[in-house]
């Protein structure tokens, strides 16, 4: 079998996501690259993860006339009625840092007991391709929010997110392990299944 090289833009400016995508796709032998810093900024103004993921992927695919993959993701906390959800990146304000968002989350949950701190990460992945319909998939991972940060791996809310059924946060496991169980990896695996089905239909 000849070598298959799939050139795909990763429509994200989040270096944490780029690392996870590149590790994931390296195993499949796909050629994926993060969009340059000068790529168009996509305004994430939709009110669903899928809506924003589709917008990011389609605008970059159109700009470069190349396939583009985007993730829109966030944290849903039960005690906050599902917030911050699609607003996770801006929880502590526009251009908030991960640290500011984590501090805001801890403050909002300061008086919430351990039994009520359930949460999940959600990812929606969109794959946009010139001249073809955009594919969309979803993935989740269940856990709870700690009272203080633990671990130094990963990015975003990882140090506060304790995985269900194990005494580890997402910042206390390796990149390979995160890619075996994360919301984003689950959404990516579902996307690969959709591509296989599509190939089978042709
Ligand atoms: O695995 C994760 N571990 C920790 N935190 C995470 C994760 N996945 C999403 N998150 C948080 C980070 C950010 O607060 C928001 C995503 O916002 P989201 O707009 O999708 O990403 P982003 O603005 O960082 O990069 P971009 O839009 O260029 O892909 O949820
Ligand atoms: Mg974003």
UniProtKB/TrEMBL annotation:
Binding site for Mg(2+): 72
CDD domains in alphabetical order: HAM1
Pfam family, one: Ham1p_like
InterPro entries: dITP/XTP_pyrophosphatase (IPR020922), ITPase-like_fam (IPR029001), RdgB/HAM1 (IPR002637)
GO MF: ITP diphosphatase activity
Family, as annotated: Belongs to the HAM1 NTPase family.
Binding-site list for substrate: 12-17, 73, 155-158, 178, 183-184
Keyword Chloroplast recorded: no
Cofactor(s) this protein cannot do without: Mg(2+)
Cofactor note: Binds 1 Mg(2+) ion per subunit.
Active site: 72
Quaternary structure annotation from Swiss-Prot or TrEMBL: Homodimer.
Catalytic reaction equation(s): XTP + H2O = XMP + diphosphate + H(+); ITP + H2O = IMP + diphosphate + H(+); dITP + H2O = dIMP + diphosphate + H(+)
Keywords assigned by UniProt, alphabetized: Hydrolase, Magnesium, Metal-binding, Nucleotide metabolism, Nucleotide-binding
Source superkingdom: Bacteria
Name used for this protein in its record: dITP/XTP pyrophosphatase
């Amino acid at each position: 079998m000849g070598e298959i090289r799939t050139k795909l833009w990763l429509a994200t400016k989040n270096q944490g996501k780029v690392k996870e995508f590149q590790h994931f796709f390296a195993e499949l032998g796909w050629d994926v690259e993060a969009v340059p810093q000068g790529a168009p900024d996509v305004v994430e103004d939709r009110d669903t993860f899928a809506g924003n993921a589709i917008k990011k992927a389609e605008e970059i695919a159109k700009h470069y006339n190349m396939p583009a993959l985007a993730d829109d993701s966030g944290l849903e906390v039960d005690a906050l009625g599902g917030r911050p959800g699609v607003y996770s990146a801006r929880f502590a304000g526009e251009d908030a840092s991960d640290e500011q968002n984590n501090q805001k989350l801890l403050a909002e949950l300061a008086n919430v007991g351990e039994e009520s701190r359930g949460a999940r990460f959600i990812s929606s992945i969109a794959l946009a391709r010139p001249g073809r319909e955009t594919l969309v998939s979803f993935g989740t991972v269940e856990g709870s929010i700690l009272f203080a940060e633990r671990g130094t791996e990963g990015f975003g809310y990882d140090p506060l997110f304790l995985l269900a059924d194990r005494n580890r946060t997402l910042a206390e496991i390796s990149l390979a392990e995160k890619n075996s169980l994360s919301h984003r990896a689950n959404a990516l695996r579902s996307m690969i299944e959709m591509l296989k089905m599509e190939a089978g239909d042709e």
